[in-house]
Write a structure and sequence with these properties.
CATH architecture of the domain at 6-140 and 166-200 and 253-258: 3-Layer(aba) Sandwich
Low-confidence stretches: 1-10
Mean pLDDT: 87
Number of helices: 10
Shape: globular
CATH superfamily of the domain at 6-140 and 166-200 and 253-258: Vaccinia Virus protein VP39
Distance between the termini: 30 Å
Strand order of the largest sheet: 3-2-1-4-5-9-8
Radius of gyration: 18 Å
Number of strands: 9
CATH class of the domain at 6-140 and 166-200 and 253-258: Alpha Beta
Largest sheet: 7 strands, mixed
């Protein structure tokens, strides 16, 4: 699977990935997922949007991220937002973390980029007995005029079309955005499904914020810089000047518990 280098759009990524809804953390609490005092590893942490949400709830959290550029943005946001979160180099397949130390492992917007069989082995290694794995995905939905125009413009610049990212592109059947085979893989590897649900929410963007958000999606991050800039310029000249853009999003959450090791 071709990996997308989000490091080349790290600035836009940091500016546009703070769209985690408050209802996500509330929904986890309602399902008896509490972060205070828990050791948590956020895998594929990016610029730390979810990591900071958990730190605000007094988790002892570490972010694991392979991209040097995204880690640098996360550390800069530590300073700007007064956090002291550790962000370490590592991958989902080789985190570098200790065995059986973590109560919770979280993965947001990243499971589809992993070598899943190896990632599952690594999640099992670092989790405590009966530890919790939380896999989250979220993104904007079609339906608004801005999104429709965005797809129209980008489809002319992205070779192969606007296909789902990572291993999602290979999946023929999905439930709330999650490929069916993921559930089978988790179950066969010793993870019990505790809950699976979705949240709908709206995010408001200025025109520049929307352009930043689009630059950070996998279709754009994988383009050559010259092609990406040309596409963004065309999009900027095409979409409405009327702000804010109110874009409907969906957040899908899967809660898994590790069986006895």
């Amino acid at each position: 699977m071709k990996q997308t280098d989000f490091g080349q759009v790290a600035n836009s990524y940091a500016r546009s990935r703070e769209d985690i809804p408050v209802t996500l953390m509330e929904s986890l609490q309602l399902r008896n997922i509490f972060f205070a005092g828990k050791k948590v590893a956020d895998i594929g942490a990016g610029t730390g949007a979810l990591t900071r949400k958990m730190a605000m709830r007094n988790a002892d959290v570490v972010g694991i991220e392979p991209s040097q550029e995204l880690r640098a943005q996360a550390l800069a946001l530590n300073v700007a937002k007064n956090f002291q979160i550790s962000y370490l180099h590592g991958t989902a397949e080789a985190t570098g973390l200790d065995d059986s130390k973590f109560d919770i492992v979280t993965v947001m917007r990243a499971w589809h980029w992993f070598d899943r069989p190896k990632a599952i082995v690594e999640m099992k290694r670092i989790l405590k007995e009966k530890g919790t794995l939380i896999v989250i995905d979220s993104g904007f939905l079609t339906g608004s005029a801005v999104v429709a125009k965005t797809y129209e413009v980008l489809s002319k610049h992205v070779e192969g079309g606007l296909t789902p990212a990572g291993s999602k592109a290979d999946s023929k059947l999905r439930i709330n955005g999650f490929p069916m085979e993921w559930f089978k893989e988790w179950q066969e590897s010793g993870f019990d499904l505790r809950d699976f649900y979705k949240l709908n929410y709206t995010v408001e963007f200025s025109k520049q914020e929307w352009l930043d958000r689009i630059e950070s999606v996998s279709w754009m991050a994988g383009l050559d810089e010259s092609v990406r800039k040309k596409a963004l310029q065309e999009l900027s000249s095409t979409i409405s000047e009327q702000e804010p853009f109110k874009i409907l999003h969906e957040c899908n959450v899967c809660l898994l518990r590790l069986s006895e090791k």
